[in-house]
Design goal:
single chain; alpha/beta; Urease, subunit C, domain 1; TIM Barrel; 4-stranded parallel β-sheet; 12 helices; 24% strand
Length: 355
């Protein structure tokens, strides 16, 4: 196996050079030949909200399709993903050299309260049991739909009674797992905080007080900037529900202001794309470009997509002996975030993949 010396600008560590030996990171210079890699080096990008295992018609994906998605992610510099809801665990189709996957089981929602085919649908009395089932299929996290359009009300509304949600979170915690929850609307957030969830996806309805409380509790927020930029599109699709339309357009008008509130709160933040079959055309670089355009400082965005985000999900960065998962750029993405579109090299398990 080829050994490497990493030098240049190593982000997320104070070391000026590190080595990859037998696929693992080390501070110890090896004997024998090494290949020099010089550039802007980051622990591999983490897409904390993507769906490599989801199929929109409800059937399990062909193994080749799962691998196509994971291969495409790697090409964008992504070396780890949290599969934030899908019918199958992509780890069953992963092999060495493809991104690591933290599978969250399948989405859980109530009947007709999520996109058709994507969620396991249960009533509140069945939420605890289904949460445990999804945890047992997962890699430690599960995903619950916290709010969605209620057609009778004509607007986004919380999906669950607070007591059912709290019982499900408690049950998963007792199993040793964690719970993240999809939420767009403000009315859901108090219930999520009271239930003790571990993560909130999108979080567009969170007030400054909600964000401060989430920061205090260490709740991980994934803003999915590219996805929330689509709120006008969602409003157009729901045009027969005028209250819903105004909610979505109102959140879009305040998008940049709200993202600034997230940053100011100090809440731990992950970067995620909310992609699935479209990952060949849209991935983490596009999320980072949109986030910077909407006010995130480039160093903040890159840290949350790399070493900071990885640490929050328990993934290694520069630790001695850790698997060597890195992305290298020829030019500094913290000067020009579009450089993330062009990784020079990607390493997974010390295996080098060149652009």
């Amino acid at each position: 196996m080829v050994n490497y010396r990493l030098s240049g600008t190593l982000r997320g560590t104070s070391h000026r050079e590190m080595w990859i030996v037998d696929g693992r990171i080390t501070r110890q210079k090896p004997q024998g030949a090494v290949t020099n890699i010089n550039g802007y080096v980051y622990p591999g990008l983490l897409d904390a909200h993507t769906h490599p295992g989801v199929n929109r018609d409800g059937r399990l994906l062909d193994r080749r399709e799962v691998r196509r998605r994971l291969t495409a992610l790697r090409g964008w510099g992504v070396t780890a993903v949290r599969d934030c809801g899908g019918q199958q665990n992509p780890n069953g189709d992963r092999y060495d050299g493809l991104p690591r996957v933290i599978h969250c089981g399948q989405h859980i929602s109530r009947p007709k309260r999520y996109t058709r085919h994507l969620a396991v649908e249960v009533e509140p009395t069945g939420l605890v049991g289904q949460a445990i089932i999804e945890y047992e299929k997962s890699d430690g996290w599960i995903k619950i739909v916290g709010d969605w359009i209620d057609r009778a009300a004509g607007d986004n509304r919380p999906v669950w009674p607070q007591s059912a949600l709290a019982d499900a979170v408690e049950a998963v915690h007792e199993c040793g797992g964690k719970v993240t929850v999809h939420s767009f609307c403000t009315e859901t957030i108090d219930d999520l905080l009271e239930a003790g969830v571990d993560g909130i996806e999108h979080g567009t309805g969170m007030t400054a007080e909600h964000l401060q409380e989430a920061a205090h509790r260490g709740i991980l927020i994934t803003p999915t900037v590219h996805q929330i930029r689509r709120f006008p599109e969602f409003a157009d699709a729901g045009s027969r529900f005028p209250i819903y339309v105004e909610r979505m357009r109102g959140m879009d008008r305040k998008r940049r202001e709200h993202l600034e509130l997230m940053m100011e709160s100090g809440v731990p933040m992950l970067m995620g794309t909310d992609t699935s079959e479209n990952v060949g055309e849209l991935s983490m670089p596009h999320e980072l470009i949109d986030a910077v355009a909407d006010g995130f400082p480039p160093d903040f965005a890159m840290a949350n997509a790399s070493y900071a985000g990885r640490s929050w999900l328990g993934l290694p960065t520069w630790e001695e002996g850790a698997p060597a998962d890195f992305v290298v750029y020829d030019s500094d993405p913290e000067v020009d975030i579009t450089q993330t579109l062009h990784p020079a090299s990607v390493f997974i398990d010390g295996i080098r993949f060149q652009a």
